[in-house]
Amino acid sequence: MEWLPDNPFVPIVLACVLTAVAFSLLAFLIKPDFVASAAPPAIFLIGYYATYQKAPPFPPIGSTNKIFYIALFATLGGFVLDRIAVGPVAVAAASLVVSLLAAAWIAFALDSPDAELIVTGAGLILVGALVLWRVGMIAATTEPEGGGAVALALLAALAALFAPVALFGGSSTSMGLCLGFAVGLAISSLSLRLAPRSLGTMAVLGAGGGLLAVIDTVVLITGGADLIALALVALSPLLGPFGGRLLPRTMRGSSALVWVATGIAALSPLPVIVTLLFLRHESPV
Amino acid sequence: MRIPSLTVVVALAGLVVASPSSAADYKIDPNHTHILFLVDHLGFSKIIGLFTNFSGGISFDPAKPEASKLNVAIKTASLQTQFPPRDSDLKGADYFNVKEFPQMTFVGSTFTKKDDTSGEIVGNLTLLGVTKPVTLEVTFNKMGKGGDGADTVGFSARGSLKRSDFGMKTAVPYIGDNVDLMIETEAKR
Lengths: 285, 189
Prior knowledge:
The structure holds two protein chains of two kinds.
Chain A: H1 9-26, H2 32-52, H3 63-83, H4 88-107, H5 115-140, H6 148-168, H7 172-190, H8 201-222, H9 227-234, H10 236-245, H11 255-267, H12 270-280
Chain B: H1 5-16, E1 24-28, E2 34-41, E3 45-51, E4 54-60, E5 69-75, E6 79-80, H2 84-91, E7 103-115, E8 118-127, E9 130-145, E10 151-162, E11 175-188
Antiparallel strand pairs in B: 1-4, 1-11, 2-3, 2-11, 3-6, 4-5, 5-7, 7-8, 8-9, 9-10, 10-11
């Protein structure tokens, strides 16, 4: 492995990219709908393994170990929901349950959470559930307004936007995981075998639940995340689809153009977030 | 990490020094104790960190050195590396996770004398909820009256551990797995 640059983030990004490519190829061999929904959580879990270099023992001790099982359990839960073909209300309820359990489980170890942490945790649960629900709804619609490509682009944008917040919040490791995850999802969203179809609940709950667990850990346990920057990150799932609607009607039929417009709009808070972080915090590099 | 060894050192003091025949309880002097660790950074250099908040003591009976008792507790949030953003990273969930694991402990279990001024202490270090044995090579420096008139013993200790043994695998091997420990301590009674 000496050919790799001396940067701990390179293996993470590489692992996520290879997983995305592998699932794209797998979609030629196995039922593409299932592979498409399994790819995002798989990218997260492989990215986690590359980041922390372990599949943590169960029951997990410590919040970073819990992240793995939150993503895994959310993926399995989503798989079950997909099998029994539940409606949108059940998906919304599942989004709330995943967000609630992720934050509660991660914060459970804290001896005496203060009022600020409780309020912050409640906000994370609520906004997290809304984000999962929103992306899940988009993933379930047909292209070009929604579908797999747009949902994956939104998740990728969320991860990319949170990366600098994690770095300035005292978790360079989470930044690496988020960057790798974002790149892997972006590649999946470009894959013609994975992205053009609507995604199952497994995709959004598994991958989104894992990302929420990372955010919960940085905010509640590491404790250094800038909450204003985090609020800007949460705007991404709203801004993304809005970007698609800004296209002239004649161009909205092109899924590629919708994808580009959605991605740009979803990432639009990035300059503000980075500027805010540099203004409000000491540079971590 | 294994910093607790300071206490161990104190314990060894008892072993090495032929002093009073009855058990004596010493407390670590935080003003004259330094607990440092060194860990490789991309092969370029070693980062040095230290813990500034700790407590501990040793009960030692020179007649029965094998019965010595040693306990050290370190507040993980006191970690410093001279660069606040890095301190935040190290105190965060990916490394020392100080909110969930605010303390690490070292309990010396086996005391072995090598010669008049050196020995070895084996104890259990508990870090991130994981307990593993750690060995410290200890040098007895001096015993006598300190500047404040208190009975004082001074030790130096060195050791190493693999942080991955305690589940801290983040960024290995870019940030080294092997952690060197340096402890300089005085204890008083």
